[in-house]
Design brief:
alpha+beta, 2 helices
Length: 81
């Protein structure tokens, strides 16, 4: 039996990421693969949301929660305007 697209692991992790950053929008994503093979997800947030809801202080929390839920490393930054 075929698994629906909305139930795939990738899709679930994407929706967790969307829900995690809350009122801010995700501007872009990059996957950085280092020489030793570890993957790092770089998430760029919308620069116009920088001053909204004290998002700057929450970025380390975003990373910690995403790591706990998905077991994937993620770094959150603001995209250059």
């Amino acid at each position: 039996k075929i698994r629906p697209r909305s139930r795939t692991l990738t899709s679930v992790h994407e929706s967790i990421l969307e829900d995690l950053v809350g009122p801010t929008e995700i501007f872009g994503k990059r996957t950085r693969i280092s020489v030793d093979g570890t993957k790092l997800l770089k998430v760029m947030l919308d620069p116009k949301d920088k001053d909204k809801n004290d998002v700057e202080a929450k970025m380390s929390t975003f990373s910690a929660v995403y790591k706990k839920l998905t077991n994937k490393e993620a770094v959150f930054t603001f995209a250059e305007a």
